[in-house]
Amino acid sequence: QVQLVESGGGLVEAGGSLRLSCVASGVTSGIYAFYASGWYRQAPGKQRELVARIEGSGSTNYHDSVKGRFTISRDNAKRTVYLQMNSLKPDDTAAYYCVVSRWWGQGTQVTVSS
């Protein structure tokens, strides 16, 4: 059973930056490297949406609203996926969830003040 632990959320002013991390356990780094990983977010009263995704090959895709501001990356040896978030906006406020293959993390809150 793969378990995911996210960290790095918090309160930041608009224009600031945060880096989210998600560490996987219960899987070897060799197997982890094949899994696609991603970050979703859900704001109050809104549907959960895909923010960014990275394939085992390293290819990435992003929600239009974060292109040019967010960067997803992975370190397979550490079984960790990251989300670097720059130029944060109040609209980025949400609970952010890490996903690796079919497993979900518990979520970490990001709040951006105006």
Short description:
With 114 residues, the chain is mainly beta. It has 1 helix and 11 strands.
Shape: globular
Distance between the termini: 40 Å
Note the total helix count: 1
* Low-pLDDT segments: none
Structure description:
The protein is mainly beta. Helix content is 4%, strand content 52%. The chain is built from one helix and eleven strands, in the order βββαββββββββ. The chain has one helix at residues 29-32, and strands at 3-7, 10-13, 18-25, 37-42, 49-54, 60-62, 70-75, 80-85, 94-100, 103-104, 108-113. The strands form two sheets. Strands 2, 4, 5, 6, 9, 10 and 11 form a seven-stranded mixed sheet that branches. The protein has a four-stranded antiparallel sheet with strand order 1-3-8-7, with no helix packed on it. A hairpin with a 5-residue loop joins strand 5 (49-54) and strand 6. The longest helix has 4 residues, at 29-32. The termini are far apart. The model has no long low-confidence stretch (mean pLDDT 97).
